[in-house]
Amino acid sequence: MDLSLVLALVAVALSVLFLLVTRARKPWQRGKLPPGSLGLPVIGQSLGLLRAMRANTAERWIQDRVDRYGPVSKLSLFGIPTVLLTGPAANKFVFFSTALASQQPRSMQRILGERNILELMGADHKRVRGALLEFLKPDMLRLYVGKIEGEVRRHLDENWAGRRTVTVLPLMKRLTFDIISLLLFGLERGAVRDTLFREFVDVMEGTWAVPLNLPFTAFSRSLKASARIHRVFTGIARETQAKLERGEASRSSDLIACLLSLTDDSGAPLLSEEEIVDNAMVSLIAGHDTSSILLTFLIRQLADDPDTLAAMVHEHDEIAKSKGDGEALTWEDLAKMKLTWRAAQEMLRMVPPVFGNFRRATKDIEFDGYVIPKGWQVFWTAAATHMDGSIYPEPDKFNPSRFETQSASVAPPCSFVAFGAGPRICVGMEFARIETLVALHYLLRRFRWKLCCKENTFVRDPAPSPLHGLPIELAEHKAASP
Question: What pLDDT is recorded for position 1?
Answer without folding.
Answer: 46
